[in-house]
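#onboarding

Welcome to the new folks! Below is a worked example of what a typical request in this channel looks like: someone posts a single protein sequence, and someone else replies with the predicted structure as tokens. Don't worry about understanding the tokens yet, we'll cover that in week two.

Example request:
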Amino acid sequence: MQPLTVLASSRAVVSGRLTAATIVISVATGKITSIFHSVLPASDFPQGTLYTDYSPYILLPGLVDAHVHLNEPGRTEWEGFWAGTRAAAFGGVTTVIDMPLNAIPPTTTVGGLKEKIQAAQGQCWVDVGFYGGIVPGNTNELKALVKEGVRGFKGFLIDSGVSQVDEFPAVSSLDITKAFEELADEPITVMFHAEMIPPISDSVGDDVQHSLPPLAPVGPLNEYNTFLASRPPSFETYAISEIVALSSVAPKLPLHIVHLSAVEAIPVLREARTRGVNISAETCFHYLSLAAEGVENGDTRHKCCPPIRKQANQDSLWSEILRRDDSVIKTIVSDHSPCTPDLKKLPSNIAGSIQSTCEGDEGDFFSAWGGVSSVGLGLSILWTEGQSRNITVEDVVKWCCSSTAKQVGLEDRKGDLKVGLDGDVAIFDDESTFEVGHSSMLFRNKCSPYQGKTLRGVVKETWLHGRKIHSTADGFDRKQGPLGQLLLAPRRVRV
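Example response:
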């Protein structure tokens, strides 16, 4: 008889519903073979079966983080497969989808994807999929990338921050049209970083695309409000309107807005969906938990694009995602976008700072790298913030497991506790708390706005394909080593 792993608890989220459950997983196949809606005793299973009753902890499907920058190859000093996937496993994330930029080369060609695949071999503690990139001039690579198994495509409508060396330049409306025409009949999702400078605005002009200081600053460059004012909500609403306007080129092609920040964009998306446009959006843990009013002078750990906006904006994002009808925000992701601490240019009084190589610009929000580090902390961030908003664990599973799996075409493997799916399980203690420090920031560079914050909700263990890969008690099993797989089977079904 094949060996089994049996995980039981008085509380589990099975097919979107909180219930008692016993989950039986084949160690040989890594798949869930049966589910019982009660806690069965160990005596019901063959002698030698690995059985644990985790009551009262909650069995959750392993989270699917559909927006992570792992940066390997080329910028492994920023992040990498080994450290990034260990950080994910710490927080119950069993699948990450790697973004196509910040690595060198970017994943804009089949050759670039193959370099990614080679670099990932033997390093992944969780399962990893890859996005392809849309940049000017790579239209002829897109169908080939679909066949090679990318989970979707991403393009920028504004400078990506790494375009100074032509790695990942922004796309024009003509580039988008060509990509839509090429992918019109493919089972793939096309995603966009949706910021554009409107043709008539009070913004600072094209220089903001390179994160340079405003030509007429509204305040000191180390004050967050100066940076916030340089990327107003109109950037997002104008970019999304442009995408919607082009959607008729390929009306069946699923479109997706990554890291939505401005609530002003929600009516634009809702009106488009009402007209039948196949478009959705995600938001991020940081937009739902951090607010501009709380950012201290020079604390560039909070810099990201689009920016973290004010508390009223955060409250409205929560109102949208908690709608029980058709919210335009379908998923919540980390957008883990790390860098080396020197590029954050933190002042010495802020945790995570190191001596900057460029003197005189410490705390400058315009010269600092933009990105928030949080992979593996998301479940706890969301659960902590959600306590005052009456969220449930079923909500979390919908936003961070089942819907993210569907977004990337993995609903036949991931995102639920269901017979036939991968035996990926997070054992969640919803009552315990921890302070974010070096021992809980397992990503490569310990520089995050969450450092020092107390979060509620601890992932006690993480299971991948029916095997335990991390526990708070014992850490990682180095003898067993990384068990993560690369998710390269081509997508078959449209979202």
